[in-house]
Amino acid sequence: MFNQNRIYRLFQLINYLKARPAKSVRSIEIFLDTSGRTVYRYLDLLKDLGFNVEKDSNNKLFIAVSSDLDLIPFTPQEADYLKKLILTTGKKNQLAQSVLQKVQQSSEIQFVADSLFKAHLSKIVEQISVAIIERKQLLIKGYSSANSQSVSDRLVEPVCFTDNYDAVSAFEIKTRLNKYFNIERINSLEVLETPMKHEAQHEFHKPDIFSFQSKSMNKEIELQMSMRAYLLLKEEYPMSAAFIKPIPDTGKYYFKANVQSFKAPGRFVLGFLEEIQVIGSKEFVRYIQRVVQKNT
Question: pTM (2 decimals)?
Answer without folding.
Answer: 0.47
